[in-house]
Amino acid sequence: MEYLNVCEERLKKQTFLKKDILEKGYDPQEFQEFLEKKKRDGGTNIDIWEYQELKDVYLLFKTRFFNDLLLACKRIPFNQKQAF
């Protein structure tokens, strides 16, 4: 019975990552590197993460991603920015 709970939990995490990393266009390699920095002993193994913990680290990743994007946009001279 415990094995089923572990498998269900893993599937829940995999579904979350597919929906929130892959389908939203984030680079999965960058996210893996981010996970590894948060938990150095096998951070890319989703079995060592609690579901809520994984969601929390995703929010940190997303915040860092948008902050990096904002900084990159600020570095572009105004006359080189394109209007959308």
Structural commentary:
- With 84 residues, this protein is mainly alpha-helical.
- The protein has one domain (2-77).
- Helix content is 68%, strand content 0%.
- It has three helices and no strands.
- The longest helix has 25 residues, at 51-75.
- Reading the helices and strands in chain order gives HHH
How many helix segments? 3
β-strand percent reads: under 5%
Q: How many structural domains does the protein architecture include? A: 1
Biggest sheet details? none
Q: What is the CA-CA span between the terminal residues?
A: 54 Å
Which of globular, elongated, flat, extended, rod-shaped describes the shape? elongated
Q: Residue ranges: pLDDT <50 for 5 or more in a row?
A: none
Helical proportion, percent range: 55-70%
What's the alpha carbon Rg, rounded to whole Å? 17 Å
* Overall mean pLDDT: 84
SS-based structural class? mainly alpha
Comma- or semicolon-separated keywords:
mainly alpha; single chain; 84 residues; elongated
Write the layout of secondary structure elements.
Elements: H1 2-22, H2 28-38, H3 51-75
Q: What would you say about this model in short?
A:
By secondary structure, the protein is mostly helical.
